[in-house]
Amino acid sequence: MKTGIGQFNGLALSPFPFLWTSEIEVMSRSARNVLYHFAVFVSIVANTQCSSVHSKMSKMNPTAKEISHLGKKHIVQMAKTLIMENSGEKVPDSYDARVFANDSSVIVLFDLPIHFAAKNTAFYYGATVDVISKTFGYTPIINTGAQIDAFKHFPFYEPFKQDMKTIEFVLGGTTSFRKHRELLNARNEGITIIETDTFYTVQVLSQSLSSQYNVDKRTGIASEHRHRHIKTESLSERGYVEIIK
Questions:
Q1: In sequence order, what are the beta bridge partners of 117?
Q2: Do residues 117 and 143 touch, judged by C-beta distance below 8 A?
Q3: Handedness of CA 23, 144, 150, 159 (dihedral sign)
């Protein structure tokens, strides 16, 4: 069941569920942190009256414990299949995947640490799925002049070579796209870059701080720096355990 664009189980995953061009100043999207910090999950409870019935029900509706024992690789593939069935869109292999579980949920988060939204584009930049409850959340950025249906499904973004060059320019020009990605992963941060006619809006999001500034498209000079502290709660702090193997 698709619960809504930028939503999971009926609740917004972030204060900014999707972006219109006119809303660039308040855009904040790193699904790595956004999905990680704001997901709300549905529990499944199965009641049985005898062991034979329980065995059949277990096969039909596997428990979180049973799925967790399958291992990360298998669970990630399950999640990709569910997203394909739900949205018709394939999660690229280049996306990072993290798996978290508790007694009633197994959550898979897909994201890239760097989001680049060129003018006149609309893509998904992340997704989350609870493989137990079959609940989905998607992370679109809609950077178009005219409004489009925000509740349709979009393809998942993958950076082109020109996008990588633009990202390197915006972030200073001395560090490669690959290195930027490695550094962001190590710090558990995310960056979103939105193209406008004359500048790029850049937002850096961590678990405790949101920073935003503009970069001139011609000179590369950054200006209008803004920072605000944010309070988030990780899945680990909510009692979830990350499955890493």
A1: 194
A2: yes
A3: negative
Nearest Cα to 125, choosing from 41, 40, 193? 193
Q: Distance (Å, rounded) from C-alpha 190 to C-alpha 30? A: 5
CA distances from 230 to 97, 193, 205 (A): 24, 20, 9
Q: Residue holding tokens 């990680």? A: 36
Q: What is the CA radius of gyration of the chain?
A: 19
**CB under 8 Å, gap of 24 or more: what pairs does 207-213 form?**
207/33, 207/37, 207/232, 207/234, 208/232, 210/28, 212/25
Tell me the whole-structure pTM to 2 decimals: 0.74
DSSP codes, 133-182: TTEEEEEEEEE-SS---TTS--PBP---HHHHHHHHHHTTSSS-HHHHHH
Cα–Cα distance, 231 to 218 (Å, whole number): 35
Q: What does the block give as tokens for 124?
A: 């998904």
Specify the residue for token string 């904040």: 28
Instruction: Report residue 2's pLDDT band, with 50, 70 and 90 as the boundaries.
Output: very low
CA distances from 143 to 103, 108, 137, 242 (A): 39, 26, 19, 33
Q: Tens of pLDDT along 78-115?
A: 999 999 999 999 999 999 999 999 999 999 999 999 99
